[in-house]
Amino acid sequence: MPSSRRRAAVCAAYLGTFLATLDISIVNVALPTIQTELHTDIAGMQWVVNAYAICLSAFMLSAGPAADRYGHKRAWLAGVILFTAGSALCGLAPSLFMLLAGRTLQGVSAAFLIAGAMPILTHLYSDPRQRAHVIGGWSAFTALALILGPLLGGLLLHSLGWQSIFLVNLPLGLVAIGLGAWGIPERKYPDQAALDPVGQVLSILSLGALAYGMIEAGDHGFAGALPLIVLALAGFALFAAVERRVRRPLVPLALFRSRSFVIVNCASFILGFSYYSSLFFNSIFLQQIQGWSPVAAGWRMMPQFVTTGCLSALFGRLSLSVPVRWLMAAGYGLTALSMTGMVFCVADTPYWIVAVLFALLGAGAGLAVPATGIVVMGMAPPELAGSVSATMNALRQAGMTIGIALLGTLMSSQAVRALARAAGEHGIPDAAAVAHRAITHHAFPAGLPMLPRLYTAAMESGFHAAMLCAGLSCVVALVLLANPRAAGNRA
Question: Would the pTM count as exceeding 0.70?
Fold first, then answer.
């Protein structure tokens, strides 16, 4: 394959993932403006975010087998075209309904872009060192999207209006379509690809219910979300029963008989649970505990994203001298170290300490993300590359969704308890109700000047509990990967 076409294919895969990742973060800065101009409420704004997240999670598993069956290039191009169309629909939406329709289309097509990038890059480079280099670059582009999302969103919102945060995807999407159509070679395995329509329907319903339930749990507590979570668990049980009986299942069950494959996919789930959910909690720490504005908080998170991008870009060179399994273990170790270090950060902790911990967190992700992808895809036979990539990404996305909900509930419940106890000690009447309103709605009754100070201390306690849990989960991943039989020890 000519090197120029190969470079075009790499750029297309990078750009597709960049678009899908950018749209996770860029929309947040425009939500208040969208709420005003479309005359909707806070619930409507939550659905602008959640429609994308739920559809991305729900269709992730189906995206990979579809690519294996109909062609990796065809499925990826369809994803870019639909994503670009969804972006146009969002940018031209005259109402909340049309905006949500566009966000739904974006979420479905983003699943094909994210799940489809890894098989394309893996097939382009058979040499492990070259493969490590391009997958490290792919991870760097993901970090770049996270960096640019809030900054680019704020600039576009101020200069051109909220519609521009969606319309900016149009020229980028057209470039990706052109590069992909020319450079990506077609590969498909219709005789080996999953043929499991019942499993596909069950996976979409189960993952959708899980994502919706966890989002509701994070917003309103687990009591209200319990029916959705029960529905998701029942769906997964039925899905597992179906997968064991079909000849070509949606999930590559044969690979899950390998302990190595199971361990690294568990690590991928933990990476979503800890690192990807940390974006939410670190923002809360900077704004609600240390008191920075949203813009200032975004800038203060830069060490995390910059180190992720730099190490991801250098990953190929690092893998020339250090085994991938060591880089993967180092990534999870640095992530665990950073998150447990955040347990000791409080409202008046100097920023340089926080910046160092953010940089360690970014360095951990810069090593763990590409290394995990390389090891998982290294165990995938060519005809199952799409299914394996989709499974890995679905687990990571589910980990992030569950992490935000579980750790968020842990943080808020611990903060409520701490504030209720402190308020009672200060003689504040109805301390439990006051604490609940302050933590969940950021509402402070008049005549209680000490409450904001007590609130900050309580939020510190909740944040520490969430970070300790996230850090310990990375320690679990590190212990699993340190096992001599763990995946990657042959890398």
Answer: yes
